[in-house]
Design goal:
Helices cover 40% and strands 16% of the residues. By secondary structure, it is of the alpha/beta class. The termini are far apart. GO terms for molecular function: carbonate dehydratase activity; zinc ion binding.
Amino acid sequence: MRKMDQIMAYNQEFVKKRDYEEYLTTRFPDKRMVIVTCMDARLTELLPKAMNLKNGDAKIIKNAGAILTSPFGNIMRSILIAIYELNADEVFIVGHHECGMTGLDPNSVITHMEARGIPDNVIHTLRHSGINLNRWLTGFDSVRESVESSVDIVRNHPLLPPSTPVHGLIIHPETGELEMVTDGYRHLESLA
């Protein structure tokens, strides 16, 4: 059976048995927090458990590496919507050890794209139309520095309420142990 068929069959039973009822909540995060973290599959259940979160406690935004690359990109927009429209009042950037974005080689990614059927002329056209594929596909050398950089982008955003704590953490993908990189409360106190 194909993956989509398996999912749809399972979902019909899930709804029929009313298994969704234990997950009922509102769209407003109960713990009033927004988390930016990595899409790594090891964190799907581990991160919420390690942070003592249940369904409905936080808005969780995932991408490759928990990286914010632009103050006016999709991730920052989602953070601001969570704050202004969904009552979040704290931001957590959570990177992790052993991240696939550590040392990611953009040339290797492009080689894999070509091996999976993306024609050379598409890569060539993108490169000559002002898109810096190497920069766009580059990872980072240090998860700590990446978290610090993302925290700085959020903290210094002109549309972020000045009293918003922005924290930086690193989680271990096997044990769930959290390491604090930057404490948002201390940062705000240092500005007072």
